[in-house]
């Protein structure tokens, strides 16, 4: 079996729980057709570079899988006809990277930055 990475964009009016359920649904399709899901990530609601189906935002999901080509083809077919999925991208990879993806690492780094209080901002001298 081959190793794949799948990224999909779901409609913006879904809740976070519905988007994560969609990730599980697509993973289950792979499992039902003889594949296995190595890992999943929910990247969150992000602004799109251009409008897709009259929407400016979308829920991003990511799957790592080890599956035969027919299982991937079936998952892509069902994702493309699913009403909530706007785009699907599947890439075959030689090996999966360990740990979280760059998207999750960047989000974690942003969350770990120390927050400055409003009083820590430099003040402008308004008398001059």
TrEMBL record:
<protein>
    <recommendedName>
        <fullName>Small ribosomal subunit protein bS6</fullName>
    </recommendedName>
</protein>
<feature type="region of interest" description="Disordered">
    <location>
        <begin position="97"/>
        <end position="128"/>
    </location>
</feature>
<keyword id="KW-0687">Ribonucleoprotein</keyword>
<comment type="function">
    <text>Binds together with bS18 to 16S ribosomal RNA.</text>
</comment>
<dbReference type="InterPro" id="IPR014717">
    <property type="entry name" value="Transl_elong_EF1B/ribsomal_bS6"/>
</dbReference>
<dbReference type="GO" id="GO:0003735">
    <property type="term" value="F:structural constituent of ribosome"/>
</dbReference>
<keyword id="KW-0699">rRNA-binding</keyword>
<dbReference type="GO" id="GO:0022627">
    <property type="term" value="C:cytosolic small ribosomal subunit"/>
</dbReference>
<dbReference type="GO" id="GO:0070181">
    <property type="term" value="F:small ribosomal subunit rRNA binding"/>
</dbReference>
<keyword id="KW-0689">Ribosomal protein</keyword>
<dbReference type="Pfam" id="PF01250">
    <property type="entry name" value="Ribosomal_S6"/>
</dbReference>
<dbReference type="GO" id="GO:0006412">
    <property type="term" value="P:translation"/>
</dbReference>
<dbReference type="InterPro" id="IPR035980">
    <property type="entry name" value="Ribosomal_bS6_sf"/>
</dbReference>
<keyword id="KW-0694">RNA-binding</keyword>
<comment type="similarity">
    <text>Belongs to the bacterial ribosomal protein bS6 family.</text>
</comment>
<feature type="compositionally biased region" description="Basic and acidic residues">
    <location>
        <begin position="108"/>
        <end position="128"/>
    </location>
</feature>
<dbReference type="InterPro" id="IPR020814">
    <property type="entry name" value="Ribosomal_S6_plastid/chlpt"/>
</dbReference>
<dbReference type="InterPro" id="IPR000529">
    <property type="entry name" value="Ribosomal_bS6"/>
</dbReference>
